[in-house]
Amino acid sequence: MSKKALLYCTLALSIFISISFEAMAQLRSIERDKLRSKDIWLAKPQGMNEIAMIPSTIQINAGEYLVERFSQKIAQSQLESGALRLELPYRLYGVDRNGVDLNLKIVVDVQGGGMNLSQDETQFEGIIQIGVLDEINPNLTRPLPNPVQMQITADIARVEPTSNFNIDHTNLPFSRLSLIAVEPKPVTLQIRSSFAQQLEEEKLSVHPVITATASPQKIEGLGIGTADITVQIESLRQKEGVGVTLDTNKGQLETTRLTLDKEGIATTKIRSVGVGVATITVRSAKAARAEIRVTFLWPWVFLLCALMGGLIGSAIRLLRSKTSHARRVIRRIIRGILIALLVNAAYAVGITLIGVSLKASAGEALNFVLAAIGSYLGKISLPRQI
User: Fold this and answer.
1) Share of the chain above pLDDT 70, in %
2) Alpha-carbon distance 256 to 109, whole Å?
């Protein structure tokens, strides 16, 4: 063999060996027993392939990902910065063109934990950052052999700058998106990716939120009891003058529209109607809505105090009149009890029928005294103005 032919053979062998080593370097083997889930498939540049019969060792080429779904829901955690981290329930196993193994996870960081009122207080904004983290080399930025395609959508006005984007590297920097919403309601974030067919969804809360309280939370029903409703919105630059609306499925609100003071607080009352549970919904254009519940109870204590007071008042009146006729005694007792109930019910809604001003506004003793005075007088005194 001539020297020239030998040279060509040597060169061809070197190229073959080089290509063989490069191909081997771009191949990764994964043991099936080391995976946490049986829900796995291959994601290739041309699409996704299911693995019908899972072998004990799975071979992956550069540009391919072995995708493992290990949970049915997105994991949440809180970062030191205050951001909410959402981790998609997938692991992507691959190898880059230099033969470096890749164990990848997809994370979405939500600044401020959700949707926040903008600086000019005209809309709600959510800043999210999406990245592909490499668990093997978390501090190095490497090009991905096959970019991960993502789509972020939500039930909001718009996503800026775009809903569709590619991630072509590991770790930092993350891709940044802005979610813009007009209404203060929770946002459903929808995440799609090129390596999975399933849509992932997560609800983002809205900040600030309305704080609403009822005092007391349980009152006497049938129109007798009232509760104070206090509404507050914090974290607003301009609190005074902010409007709040209220509605309820039961009971009667003193007013359905409130205006916050300079402390961001407003109050109203609810009066019971019937018995049961009233759900009061509080809304504002600048904060997430709030719901509180007030229970309307059967007014057994009210009725008992009115009955006892009516009996005592009627007894005192009878003793003074020295009446002994049975029918007349019974009529006066019944009349006294009825007057006692009427006087108490009228006083509960702000009308005094006994011509006497009392300092107390609530309590069992008040009900008893009102009933006793009314039944003792044996008549009611209508005020000039009701």
Assistant:
1) 79
2) 39
